[in-house]
Amino acid sequence: MQQIDSFKRAADALQPKLVAWRRDFHMHPELGFEEVRTAGIVADHLRGLGLEVSTGVGKTGVVAMVEPDAVAENAPTVMLRFDMDALPILEANDVPYRSTVDGVMHACGHDGHTAVGMGVAQVLTGIRNDLPGRVKLVFQPAEEGLGGAQAMIADGALEGPKPAAAFGLHLWSRMPLDQIVVQEGPLMAGADKIHLVVHGVGGHGAMPHETVDAVVVASEIVLAWQTIVSRTVSPTEPAVVTVGSFHAGSAANVIAGRAELSGSIRSFSIETRDLLVRRLREIAEGICAAHNARCEFTFTAGVLPTINSAAGAALMRDVAASLVGAEQVGTMTPAMVGEDMSEFLMRAPGCYVLVGANDPDGPLNSPHHSPTFDFDERMLSTGVALLAATAVEYLQREATAQ
Q1: Parallel, antiparallel, or unpaired: how do β-strands 61-66 and 53-57 relate?
Q2: Taking residues 352-362, what's their average pLDDT?
Q3: What span, in angstroms and rounded, lies between the C-alpha atoms of 247 and 327?
Q4: Beta bridge mates, 303
């Protein structure tokens, strides 16, 4: 890939700025839909590059377009996405750029993603009149389970014009620096929430025959639910059913008339998700009926599975191999974590990749969502070069195909 060296040089030149941006964001983390300061810095940077910027998209999101002065109306459009939110975690790191906000921390690398996005904007703006199309930059709020992608889409982030493909990255703190995971098909799971209320008949602990014990009924449901994955879902199809909370009763000698369960389910396909939901409901209602209890089952859709298209993965694999070497590009077993980049990929098929951010000569970093999370900042320039080159390569291939 002839242009990759120029992208690498441009990204390397930005490395000091990338580190400064990332550390500033790290010191001033903001939770989902509260990224006012972060979004303001991003928007000011984009305006400083001469870009037209839309703010308040999906409450605190930012969108900008990089395009030539003279661009054809039917020119291809590609989207790059960067998430900005932090987590409600008290940081335990002793570093100069430690979070200054008590109980809030960038513990997943979104500070790095935002810095990468600002760098990509600067690199692409420098060559915008050579672009054979448009690059839509989307800085997203509230990725951490709050529906930021859906909020931006509802606010028109994918309109005017609609991108044909979407690309993005997630730095991975425990994967060696500059290793890149690129694969077609599932990368991360869909994650949804379930809630169940069991209504029995409470009474005296010494007179169980006069009651319908909600604790016993709910306990039986929890155990029966664990057979769904092992006895209903195909053994070749990954799935998880987790009950994370169980609340019932108030005294040792009182039989509870109500029990409440909450949990999550994870899968790599909509079909499997629908199967899980159907069996969860059927089992709960069947067990309740057997015990003369009743229940209320609630399913709350979360994030869709993150699924890369074959074409998008092939393109990013080519770019990544040119950037870091083919031996550094690989695949992995799909992870059961959720990521709402999936919302964009379902509408604009492309590819989401993982970029290694652990110093191979140092100790293993803490995992994501840990109070001691951190990463090797040398991945920032790699991320800039990777996404800038991916956008240009996509546009060039599309323009050639037209």
Answers
A1: antiparallel
A2: 97
A3: 51
A4: 191
What is the number of structural domains in the chain? 2
Q: Residues with catalytic annotation?
A: 85, 143
DSSP secondary structure letter of residue 327: G
Pairing between strand 53-57 and 165-176? Answer: unpaired
Tokens representing residue 159 in the block: 């309109």
Q: Determine the Cα angle at 389 with ends 384 and 394, to 5°.
A: 135
Say if residues 223 and 272 touch (Cβ distance below 8 Å): no
End-of-domain residue from the set 259, 280, 303 = 303
Residue type (1 letter), 329: V
The answer to whether 284 touches 221, Cβ cutoff 8 Å, is: yes
Q: Taking a C-beta distance cutoff of 8 angstroms, is the pair 342, 305 a contact?
A: yes
Q: Which domain range does residue 57 map to?
A: 4-187+305-401
- For residue 201, the 8-state DSSP code is B
pLDDT tens-digit series, residues 223-252:
999 999 999 999 999 999 999 999 999 999
Last residue of one domain, picked from the residues 257, 276, 303? 303
The interaxial angle of helices 310-324 and 379-401, nearest 10 deg, is 130
Please name every residue paired with 193 in a beta bridge, in sequence order, or none if there are none: 264, 300
CA angle in degrees (0–180, nearest 5) for 22-345-107: 30
Question: 352 and 341 in contact (C-beta within 8 Å)?
Answer: yes
Alpha-carbon gap, residue 247 to 259, rounded angstroms = 6
CATH number, position 275: 3.30.70.360
**DSSP reduced 3-state for 11:** helix
Q: Is 316 exposed, middle or buried (0-12, 13-18, 19+ CB in 10 A)?
A: buried
Query: At residue 330, what is the residue type?
Result: G
What angle is formed at CA 346 by the lines to CA 328 and CA 278, rounded to 5 degrees? Answer: 110
What is the percent of the chain where pLDDT is above 90?
Answer: 97
Is 197:294 a contact under the CB 8 Å cutoff? Answer: no
Q: In this structure, are 30 and 133 located in the same domain?
A: yes
What sign does the dihedral 129-131-134-140 (CA atoms) show? negative
Contact in structure between 29 and 90 (CB atoms under 8 Å): no
**What is the value of pTM for the model shown?**
0.92
Q: Residue 254 pairs with which residues in a beta bridge?
A: 204
* 1 pLDDT more than 70: no
Q: Identity (one letter) of the amino acid at 300?
A: T
- 3-class secondary structure, 235: coil
Cα separation of 83 and 166, whole Å? 14
